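User: Structure with flavin mononucleotide, tokens only please.
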Amino acid sequence: MNSESPNSLHTPLCSILKCRVPILLAGMGGVARWELASAVADAGGYPTLGMVRESPALIASEVTALRVATDQPFAVNLIPGATDPALLDAQLQQCFELDVTAFSFFWDVMPEVVARVRERGATVLHQVGSVEQALKAQNAGVDVIIAQGIEAGGHVHGRKGSFVLANEIMQETQLPVVIAGGISTGKELAEAIALGAQGVQCGTAFLATDESFAHQYHKQRVVDAVAEETVLTDVFVLNWPKGAAVRVIGNSVTKALDGDLFGHDPDTLPREAIAWDDGVARFRFSTDSPLRTTTGDLEAMSSFAGYSVGAIHAIVPAKKRLEEIERDAADYLSAGMTTDTLRLTKTGVPAWRKLKRTELRATRKSLSVEAHAATSNRIASALEALLSERFNGAVGRVLSMYWPIKGEPDLRDLMSKLHDSGVIIALPLVETKAAPLVFRHWTPLTKMTRGDWNIPVPPPEAEVLIPEIVLAPLVGWDRSGYRLGYGGGYFDKTLAVLDPAPFKIGIGYASARLETIFPQPHDIPMDTILTEAGVFTG
Ligand SMILES: Cc1cc2nc3c(=O)[nH]c(=O)nc-3n(C[C@H](O)[C@H](O)[C@H](O)COP(=O)(O)O)c2cc1C
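Assistant:
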């Protein structure tokens, strides 16, 4: 699958970055130089040159060599927050002189740096470790966010899992999101796309390739290690801000910490040269990893690597690594793994539900005023018919209804009509946080007050009732009658304790039907679900 990429893998990001597949080479300092970058580019991925704290002269020679090797686009990675301002200025100046058209930044978002490269029309990718930094990056005007999870190799800025973080960032920002951290397989790329991300960024997976500039020792350690052997620590921190954590494969330095992995101060750590690169000393506790050119005590240096080590079993050409990821991702997506299943495997049920709620509520919000009124009327008629068939009109019985919020079907006219025909109407209230709902009597003359979430509710003097029939508004529902609510769990808590158990009618839109809501032990199914398209009995 070299020339034709299946459409499923061609995300809009590919058009932004002008690459065939949304697999990004991380801008690994020292490691991602022109040879690796050109191999990834020619295989259809998007390369980043790792130029953190490198001299303008090296940037010039690397960019030039890359352009000789390939005519594909690329980005230059810099880390503004961890670079001396004068050097950063010289690096940017050099990039401008070279007409570099894309930058990939990492660590703290520095809006003035983003603005400076954007002024020149450059595309900006920014790797972040939190939603807060993602929002800052969006405000600064970046084009693409790379969500870096705690599984990542090298410097790790956040503390959340990559897919969980990416999911949150996708909820909060409008930008294309790429997932980084622990990714080295096609299944993970498929999962990322299923989650709604537009691609993945891999570091470790490309470190263990023929073309990477890492030392053979480092590559072999990646091949030999399993994820559990990686360690997150701030002991390799010389020349970085205090507290900056890195994920490395454990070695004699991390073992000697005896579990005290954090709290190291770059200003008090000894500066002992243990290795050399072309005559330049590399210190114990520095962030330098062993490169092709390094000699000395390689074992004691930081061998950066992510959880992805577990799936890397050989040093191969970068093209082969990329094509395997691409082929497996396409297989997973075409094997019919549904988007929901893929999402679920990565986020867990609560995060999946959160995402679904957002999607369903957005769909609901897009309903026109007329369509909302027509749908509400149809549901009202269906409810009236149901009450008359099953409960003989429910005259004299307590029926709990609801005051419509957030685009829920509006049944208030029916509420008055049922009251007039002799049905006793109750409305639910949150009177105590996290406790079951309380139901209070409602009539068309009731003077409503504002309750939880600012919803109009009967006043405290209204009589408390125990409903025999309960309407539960639905954000989503499934064919087994399970209900997706707003996530507060109030209806489930209430329905679990009402004795005798009421007859439960879910009220929602036909379009909110899901294959499954992945029911959990606390979820209580409805007896019937009513939508504008009819009655569904679970
Ligand atoms: C050896 C190595 C060096 C790295 N150096 C940098 C760097 O200079 N700049 C940067 O933005 N990210 C750097 N990273 C982090 C990557 O951008 C990315 O977040 C990480 O590789 C993703 O996790 P993975 O290694 O499991 O694929 C480095 C990662 C590794 C493994």
